[in-house]
Amino acid sequence: MKVILKSIFMFIIVSTTSCDKNDFQPDYSNGQATALMNGENWIGQGRGTENNQGIGFDMYYDVFDNLGQRRERLSFRKVPVAVGIYKLFDTSGQSTDSLAGCSYTTVTSDGDVVEDRYRIDEIGEQSTIKVTNYSNSNRLLSGEFSLKLYIDPDRPKSNPSNPDTILFEMGEFEVKIEE
Predict the structure, then answer these.
(1) CA-CA distance, 26 to 97, in Å (whole number)?
(2) Which of 126, 130, 163, 161 lies closest to 147, judged by CA?
(3) Structure pTM?
(4) Contacts of 6 (CB under 8 A, 6+ apart)
(5) pLDDT < 70 positions in the chain
(6) Which residues make Cβ contacts (< 8 Å) with residue 86, sequence separation at least 6?
(7) Who's near 12: CB < 8 A, 6+ residues apart?
(8) Coil/strand/helix, residue 100
(9) What is the pLDDT of residues 46-58, one digit of tens each?
(10) Which residues contact 114 (CB under 8 A, 6 or more apart)?
């Protein structure tokens, strides 16, 4: 009996120490965005797709916790392929307008429950995206962004520690557009 208990104890010890659940590393091979978010360094793992309405590209930049659960998503929608500076609006990726859009969400639970949603501030020139390069051969899109976002007034604030306003400054992005 002592041998069985000892074996079970050793199995539990080996099982719990051999699995480090805090070793998740984001995969930036498809792209990344970096910025100062409210004065702090910020980096998101990128993914780019063609907009399903055929209007430019959509890009998503996710931030994960140490367990690999998504905690933030910065989304750009209908970004034009042409080099230039574009004002960002609070528009859906599903609408057929040609306005480039942006939003930011925090995520909770196991990475699939929206916590707080932020809308882009459309007033002034603080919320823009600048496309500096697009290579058709390798489908790589790059540029810069500057954002001012505010908590969505149509949704009650879920996490009181989240700021009411978010500023992304000196933002840079690069993303491979999936085929």
Answers:
(1) 33
(2) 126
(3) 0.84
(4) none
(5) 1-22, 92-95
(6) 79, 80, 100, 128, 129, 130, 131
(7) none
(8) coil
(9) 999 999 888 999 9
(10) 105, 106, 107, 108
